[in-house]
Amino acid sequence: MAPKIKDVAKKAGVSVTTVSRVLNGEKYVKDDLKERVKSAIDELGYTPSHIARSLVRKKTNLIGVIVPDVTSSFYSTILSNIEQTASLNDYNLLVCNIIEDTDKELKYLNVFKEMRVDGIIIMHEKLNDEIREMIGKLDIPIIFSSVKPPDQQFISVIIDDYEAAYDATRYLIGLGHERIGFIGGDMRDVTSGQNRYIGYCKALADNGIPLVEDCVRFGDYKTQSGYTLIQELLDCEPRPTAVFAVSDDMAVGAMNAVRDRGLAVPDDISIIGFDGSQLTELVRPRVTSMEQPIREMGTVTVNVLIEMIAHPEKAPKQDVILRHELVVRDSCRRNE
Amino acid sequence: MAPKIKDVAKKAGVSVTTVSRVLNGEKYVKDDLKERVKSAIDELGYTPSHIARSLVRKKTNLIGVIVPDVTSSFYSTILSNIEQTASLNDYNLLVCNIIEDTDKELKYLNVFKEMRVDGIIIMHEKLNDEIREMIGKLDIPIIFSSVKPPDQQFISVIIDDYEAAYDATRYLIGLGHERIGFIGGDMRDVTSGQNRYIGYCKALADNGIPLVEDCVRFGDYKTQSGYTLIQELLDCEPRPTAVFAVSDDMAVGAMNAVRDRGLAVPDDISIIGFDGSQLTELVRPRVTSMEQPIREMGTVTVNVLIEMIAHPEKAPKQDVILRHELVVRDSCRRNE
DNA sequence: ATGAAAGCGCTAACAT
DNA sequence: ATGTTAGCGCTTTCAT
């Protein structure tokens, strides 16, 4: 059996309180006692039980994280930064990977509650009623990262997706493109679905370019869906000279489809992505992308959450909006 | 304050023991009492405290996982499967991302100990003395996934890297290649460093092909290192007609470098990767790779670990060796 | 079939 | 400056 505080106290010839005091770095312990306790701890190989501590302190230093898919470059990068920032602040991560599995999410939310996690980070916006209700009466600080659920009560760390999509489209227009296809996300998603689509539409409208419904498709942000959907766009007459894909994964899928059809990016068609995932630099041509500050997003999310945990009464009422940034690489060119 | 078992007992007009009994699905509770307790639980929105439970049961249902880099396609895929299998068995994951940071790993190992996790999964093999010592006296079941540290005392879920590398090299030889470059890993790593290199050497030797030191480089498994190292191989006279990179990431980096130099894969040079990461299908040409059963690896790791947790006395003494498999795609061709 | 009470390992009044 | 003790929320003998 692992040694407990009582064993240390006995060995050092002091009370458990004294041991607890040196454990928690309190003053009011004479140096010689402190030394005795420390060597007792060393000899016994004692490590305090976080469990017991949590029980009395009513604080677990645990953050529950719900990721849609850890294998995605986008989410894993945010997760990586979440982990780093959490670790820096002595928080540990309970990670749940839900692959569109509502039951699993519900289960994990319940686990988070049982575990008495101090805070929760959620990275998807498809909240059904059950989950909404569960979350609503959870009484644990919750923050959304990179997404914004329709509910006003929750706060998010996001970019302005509307504006980012607007800027991405404008970039294409500025390059002389007028037939610009769109490969969108899930229109049930407010940020990554609706807002990006609206931004695209508005940019066209502001520049007197008519929206061609036939050049618009919606997918699920993944490579395969970009691969599939662009094929329909390539069949349009006249063919778009540029395509805006609302995720880098979809952009890469689209680029592969173009290539597999014997066409070239960007010579035959320009493609711009969205997110700023590592993939943009891995493929050839490298993907021009409207980037989110992914790493910063993870960091900010944790910092805001920790603030909410520390001061639940003054929880922020406003979303945190980070800046998006166009990073030009090689997948778009001027339309002559 | 969240309701506790005592509140439920009071509300239902029974003892806490009875509540505990229905919570844990024991028999010996009359139906009407059971009903009363259940509705009290519902009305109060009571959720048992995992903390308190863990304290008395001396079981946390927590598994600590140490990943070198969650943003890597290879590790995140294993992690995803670890999570899935753990969740299926009611275990939760405490995830630690160490980016070659020994201090952080040490810290986390200590956190795992404090948290009294039931088991630990480690996915890297660079154990320095400090970590080795820490792990040695941890008294928590530990299993290594996809890697094998030099120490005989720990068990691993791995493939036979030597044989896999041998087979990969033989595939290239079978394609008619005789000048076969090698982009290896870290020679301090037994599995992914040494064994793959030795397999490569042995395959050459068995086929009467002399090893050309100049066509061998060692990197860190990442894209950038593949990109850099292959440049030196391309300068060799005569130039290798094929290259074996011991990770898909390095293979992709190498392919990019080849392309950026105006050469083509596989027409000018064949490149075979290793791992079977998602990347192989994402880039063009798609990467022929000696694949590890990544998904199975995560599943098996958790299953074995859970077995070790349940029966610490009869811990497996043998590594679990999974089968590797060559998946032919488009990055290698016959050398005429 | 149900309940009283001890204790899991620790912290935090409170007392000295 | 140090020690005593009462919980934290639950499970689990042991009684009844």
UniProtKB/TrEMBL annotation, chains A, B:
CDD domains: HTH_LacI, PBP1_CcpA-like. Keywords: DNA-binding, Transcription, Transcription regulation. Residues 3-57 form the HTH lacI-type domain. It holds the Pfam family Peripla_BP_3. PROSITE patterns: HTH_LACI_1, HTH_LACI_2. It comes from the Bacteria. One of its GO terms (molecular function) is transcription cis-regulatory region binding. PANTHER family: HTH-TYPE TRANSCRIPTIONAL REGULATOR EBGR, LACI-RELATED TRANSCRIPTIONAL REPRESSOR. This is LacI family transcriptional regulator. It comes from Paenibacillus lycopersici.
